Task: inverse folding
């Protein structure tokens, strides 16, 4: 699997045991022991860590982030308190609830930094180690957060755009499923830059997949010149399969992010490929970084972002990825 060199460098910055797992073919998931239990165990006190994300109910991407966080918490003797809300003001309130609960660490996404960042800054001011993950790479440092784990959305989008260009795409419909999410806007802008062709943005409601499919189908029926549907999450990409079919379109489908169902769609050719940012790894590293901070003041990445992607999942490596997906780690 091809990954950016910075992602590899981020892996090498970890402790020896974690580094061996982070760059593995399991997409950053630690390899289980023979009895299927993740190796680990620490001698530190029981800590409490809150992870607050913007994940919407039913979005399988966030199940993978949470699984990674839970595995790191189990290894590090941490009580993980996971919560999420796709509405930025509500997410900010969840961060403030964690502050009031006097947790030992907070990991938070910043899809809307202006709305959520001040709450993260309050956590830092209260002396709580705080890191970012998944969204907000350009903003986390403004609020004093000590680290960030995710992919550079612009770089990832540009890499995807260049690949689409090499494959002959000329007219791409980039589907944003969370209006107002700066990370998704950056992805589509990157696709536009890398493609050098025509990129149209289509906004759909990612919390209503039936509506999302209908919106995509209507656009494809209206504009037969669209040759590629580029989704930004696996569930929307899966709905795009039927949208393309029902619209009588010849458009191909590619996407950001994977789940077990989408891996199967790549394997049978219904979807061409996916940009993988390794969500399991994002959750795992965020929690593990907070434990290291509490344990000995260590900082992963020296305050710089630790990249977890992008990499591509396609016909050349989908069988390996499918194995990890069956274990809930991809």
Result:
């Amino acid at each position: 699997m091809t990954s950016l060199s910075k992602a590899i460098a981020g892996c090498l910055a970890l402790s020896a045991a974690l580094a061996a797992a982070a760059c593995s073919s399991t997409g950053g998931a630690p390899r289980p022991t023979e009895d299927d239990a993740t190796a680990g165990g620490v001698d530190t006190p029981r800590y409490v860590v809150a992870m607050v994300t913007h994940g919407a109910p039913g979005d399988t991407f966030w199940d993978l982030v949470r699984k990674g966080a839970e595995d790191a918490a189990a290894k590090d003797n941490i009580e993980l308190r996971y919560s999420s809300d796709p509405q930025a003001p509500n997410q900010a309130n969840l961060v403030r609830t964690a502050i009031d609960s006097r947790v030992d660490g907070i990991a938070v996404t910043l899809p809307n930094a202006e709305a959520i960042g001040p709450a993260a800054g309050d956590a830092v001011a209260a002396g709580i180690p705080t890191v970012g993950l998944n969204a907000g790479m350009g903003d986390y440092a403004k609020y004093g957060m000590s680290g960030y784990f995710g992919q550079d959305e612009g770089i990832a989008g540009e890499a995807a755009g260049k690949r689409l260009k090499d494959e002959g795409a000329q007219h791409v419909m980039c589907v944003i499923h969370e209006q107002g999410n700066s990370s998704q806007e950056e992805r589509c802008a990157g696709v536009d830059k890398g493609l050098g062709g025509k990129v149209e943005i289509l906004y759909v409601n990612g919390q209503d997949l039936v509506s999302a499919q209908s919106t995509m189908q209507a656009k494809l029926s209206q504009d037969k010149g669209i040759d590629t549907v580029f989704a930004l999450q696996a569930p929307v990409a899966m709905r795009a399969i039927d949208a393309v079919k029902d619209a009588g379109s010849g458009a191909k489908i590619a996407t950001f992010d994977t789940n077990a169902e989408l891996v199967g769609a790549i394997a049978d050719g219904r979807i061409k490929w996916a940009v993988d940012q390794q969500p399991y790894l994002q959750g795992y590293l965020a929690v593990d970084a907070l434990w290291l901070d509490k344990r000995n003041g260590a900082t992963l990445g020296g305050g710089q972002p630790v990249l977890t992607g992008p990499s591509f999942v396609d016909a050349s490596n989908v069988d390996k990825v499918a194995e990890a997906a069956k274990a809930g780690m991809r």
Remarks:
- The chain has two domains: 5-151+277-326, 153-276.
- Residues 1-39 have pLDDT under 50 and may be disordered.
